[in-house]
Amino acid sequence: MLKEFITEYNTYYFNSNNFTLSTSLDNSNNDIGKEHDNNILRKVVINISNSCNLSCAYCYADGGNYGMTSQLMDITTADKIIEQLSTSGVRCIKRLILFGGEPFLNIDLFVYLIEELSKNIELNKIETVTNGTVLNKKVKETIERYHPFLTISLDGPQLIHDRLRGKGSHRRTLKFIEYLKEINYENFEIASTYTRMHQKYGFQKEDIYDYFTQMDVRFNINNVFSKNKILAVKEMEMSEEKRKLFINQSLEDIINNNDKNYISPIVYDVLLSMIFKSKAESFCDDIDPETTITFDVDGTVKSCFRFWGTHNSDKVSHFNNKDNFTKCKDCWCKGMCVECVANMIDGYSPIISEEGQFIDCRKQILMEYCIYKIIELSQDKERLSKLVNNFERFIRYA
Ligand SMILES: C[S@@+](CC[C@H](N)C(=O)[O-])C[C@H]1O[C@@H](n2cnc3c(N)ncnc32)[C@H](O)[C@@H]1O
Ligand code: SF4
Ligand code: SF4
């Protein structure tokens, strides 16, 4: 499909199959083929601990155990996973994510999985998500030896963080971050969950943004998904005007290489498609057993970690197919559109209800605005080249 963009410079045609912009109507319809090497897995996520030492007010994982009995993954289960992966011909795992609950509560298995898997399989990137409160000798040794990419959860200043995550947790997580700074460890980012409680205590999102900017860390801030009125953010959506300003700011941040700044998801999705020709065939392309596998704590295979424990669902493939929703089926920007299917099924999506009804979508307007901005800045070749060349540094999940 070709979408017209009329500007003061020219009329451009955006080809929504291959994400190219052209001034000619002949913008060829070469579709982007889905290349896949059966021996390479894009992502493997393993629940090594559905135990947790915190009990955060908003936790979608029910305090870390996903509605099951709290337990650490044992070696027998890990061996079965290693055997399954090693004998299935997998040569390379691009992202190995050791997850939980709190993964550092099972540090021995963390190390065991890396050591054993890497005997037969190339591990491109090892990652984990931690609450940053478990910092013992073994955890330090593991970080220094295997250099995992760490996502550390920190919700803002002490008052709000401790209110949500428990008294004393802020101090412990800051200690963890201080340790990383002491050893000049840059392979981490902060993930902050923003809630109504922040608003109640007077913390606007901008305040949290400033807090992390002053800490001089790479970070992202996500709204909580919750049906609890005390937690769900009031005015979940930023106004359209604010989102457009955020798009402008994000484009400038990329041009100026401010790679610690969190950029607009709209800019992210548009540039990923236009520059890297990445096409979102479904709402979540990670839900694809050919490229992504997740193992629950008992070793069972699930399509995504959000379906671990009691959260399993048989509606995943229906919700993941854009063609099952009339508005999406004929949408010019569907190839750039990524949405969380678990959030739809659990009723947290502003676009598709848990009953499977299309609600509303502002993305088309925002993606259109973003492409107009790209056309505008492309009149200055130097700025365009900076945008294209710098963007790679902003990619969080390769
Ligand atoms: C389930 S935790 C597991 C890892 C580790 N225990 C931690 O807290 O970082 C993974 C991430 O999900 C976030 N999270 C948990 N519940 C959430 C919710 N309801 N909405 C948005 N993010 C949530 C946490 O803040 C954390 O960054
Ligand atoms: S630390 Fe992580 S897993 Fe534990 S309760 Fe908090 S969000 Fe859930
Ligand atoms: S209508 Fe919205 S949700 Fe549906 S494919 Fe288009 S951008 Fe995505």
Automatic annotation (TrEMBL):
Q: InterPro entries per the record? A: Aldolase_TIM, rSAM, rSAM_sf, Sulphatase_maturase_rSAM
Q: Which Pfam families match?
A: Radical_SAM
The protein's matches in Gene3D superfamilies, at most eight in alphabetical order, are given as: Aldolase class I (3.20.20.70)
> Radical SAM core domain: from which residue to which, for each copy?
38-256
Asked if the record carries the keyword Thylakoid, the reply is no
Mind listing the UniProt keywords for this protein, alphabetically? Iron, Iron-sulfur, Metal-binding, S-adenosyl-L-methionine
Protein name, per record? Radical SAM protein
- Origin organism is Streptococcus caledonicus
